[in-house]
Amino acid sequence: MTAKDIIQYMESLHDEKQRQVLMRFFKTGPGEYGEGDEFIGLKVPQTREVVKMAAKDLPLDEIPALLESRWHEVRLCGLLIMVLKFEQLTAKRWINDEHAIRQRDEITMLYLDHAERANNWDLVDMSAPKILGHWLMLPTHLGDKQAIVDALAYSENLWRQRMSMVCTWKTTQMGDPSWCLRYAEIHLHHPHDLMHKAVGWMLREVGKRVSVDLLRDFLRQHAHEMARTSLRYAIEKMNYEERSYWMNVSS
Question: Collapsing DSSP states into helix, strand and coil, what is residue 248?
Answer without folding.
Answer: helix
